[in-house]
Amino acid sequence: MFVQQLEPVAHSLALSAVVAALPLVTVLVLLGAVRLKAHLAGLIGLTVAVLVGWLAYEMPLGQTLSAGAQGVLFGLFPIMWIVVNALWVYRMTVRTQHFDILRRSFGRLSDDPRIQALVIAFCFGALLEALAGFGAPVAICAVMLVALGFDPVKAAVVALVANTAPVAFGAMGTPVVTLAQVTGLPLDDVAAVVGRQTPLLALVVPLVLVGLVDGVRGLRETWVPALVCGVAFAVAQFAASNYVSAQLADIAAALAGAGALVAVPAARKPAAENVRTSVLTGVRSDDLDHEDPRREVLRAYAPYALIVVIFSVAQIPPVKRLLAEATRVFDWPYLDVAGPTGEPVGANLFTLPVVATGGTLVLLAGLVTSLVLSVPARDALREWTATVHELRYAILTVTSVLALAYVMNLSGQAATIGQSVAAAGAGLAFLSPVLGWFGVAVSGSDTSANALFGALQVSAARESGLSPELLAAANSSGGVLGKMISPQNLTIACAAVGLAGREGDLLRKVLPWSLGLLLVMCLVVMAQNTPVLGWMLP
User: Fold this and answer.
1) Which residues have CB under 8 Å from 114's CB, separation 6+?
2) Which of 233, 227, 231, 238 is nearest to 253 (CA)?
3) Is 529 in contact with 429 (CB distance < 8 Å)?
4) Helix, strand, coil percentages, rounded to 5, for the chain
5) What is the distance between the alpha carbons of residues 163 and 514, in angstroms, rounded to a whole number?
6) Which of 403, 412, 398 lies closest to 452, judged by CA?
7) CA–CA separation, 207 and 220 (whole Å)
8) How far apart are alpha carbons 7 and 56 in whole angstroms?
9) Residue 284 class from Cβ within 10 Å (0-12 exposed, 13-18 middle, 19+ buried)?
10) Would you tell me how many other CB atoms lie within 10 Å of the CB of residue 464?
């Protein structure tokens, strides 16, 4: 059995943390500064993680490689399994020209690209995050924005930044459920505190989005609908997470935000022609005047309605139990790891949710979609294989980054970084969101970051005399802001809009927003630990 060490480098926590951070720093520098392609940066970062785990942390090479292999499988299934099938559904709608009909329908809801960004990236993206997560909202929303005429880079940036506020309650509340499980805290208590932090992001993000789309003019002309949308989203997310169900928080928030946005008269006001021409590219001014038969409009919405219905049905307890029966749990070969305290880590066992996973449910929705849109089986299969080919570099990037994350987690590198942050004492309330942010930046998953650092946050809180619920929630709330800079999410966004190899460009555009919003969350959590905002806590 390999037992993780927290201070393997000169018996110094600080030096060990510096060495442990090398793999992630390598990836970010290669992407942002060197502008290396993401799959190459991921492979180099993985190599650094393996070397650090083997040489500095003394993890046997066989176990180090086995840990990386588990990350590769997790990257393929469920993460890329979801993305491939989600984009396959999109490709079928393009093939049958129903995506053009959907685009025109959204365009007629409002021809203002700033409002379209809120409807699609913020509201519809939140609904997809609530049901699927794992990159599907970014991929689908970015593609929809491009189809409406957005520049691909701007569409990807908007989709990435929008995918923040709903993440903590995404995939039917999986991140907060996981957080409650690993910390031993009641789910209702954890969800209640998270529901008093992330809604504050919902107040800000819509304003950021209209600013990203159209700069200062966008803020000046559309701040009212943006703010109304954000307030409705925030109130619904707060109410559902505190008084109804954490699993339903994002569904309620997405629907409330969209409903409030549509109800605002300013949101339905036609955009000035100079706004459209300066923001959109490649869309004819008369394109939205084309009238589509009602039957075809319904067929255009059908794929996404099917996704919503199938995911909702899958959450009904009897159905959920039935789907879970196909889940397989087995010992992962050549992996026998214990944490610093000597307790075996959960990764020694691998869970394979064959049916009860988002990708399989999206695949089912895609099969029904092919029937609804009258796509022949041969053409549907051809589109699926073409999707895999299109995403080949994205698959390589995601699997290498997840392998890096698993090596860092299982060798003890991530625990060292977490322990160094937890040693901050009085400053822990300010730094606790940073730990969650780091975890999501590495793994691309708020669920993984909560599983990794949740218990550590609670332990450090108790040692420092702080609220365990506050710091556990801060881990998840800070983590949502790391998602936009996660290499796997950057790759998914680039692949979706045809910008393969330009992940570094996206990173430079979203990193300031990630850091800026992280600072806001750090200040909020710090203030919630004092009388200034302490009244917000239950």
Assistant:
1) 209, 210, 213, 214, 218, 221, 222, 226, 271, 275, 279
2) 233
3) yes
4) 80, 5, 20
5) 11
6) 412
7) 10
8) 10
9) exposed
10) 18
| Per-residue pLDDT reduced to its tens digit, 357-408 | 778 888 999 999 999 999 999 999 999 999 899 888 878 877 887 788 889 8
Partners of 349 in the β-ladder: 331
> What's the pLDDT tens digit per position in 397-448?
778 877 888 898 899 988 888 788 777 766 888 989 998 998 888 777 787 7
Look up residue 463 and give its amino acid.
E
Write down the residue that tokens 């139990």 correspond to: 321
Q: H/E/C letters for each residue in 435-503?
A: HHHHHHHHHCCHHHHHHHHHHHHHHHHHHHCCCHHHHHHHHHHHHHHHHHHCHHHHHHHHHHHCCCCCH
DSSP annotation of 530: S
How many Å apart are CA 436 and CA 453, to the nearest integer? 7
pTM for this predicted structure: 0.78
Residue with tokens 């943390």: 17
Q: And the tokens for 198?
A: 């992330």
Q: Is 272 helix (H, G, I), strand (E, B) or coil?
A: coil
Q: Which position has the token pair 């041969």?
A: 378
Q: Which tokens is 313 given? A: 């049905």
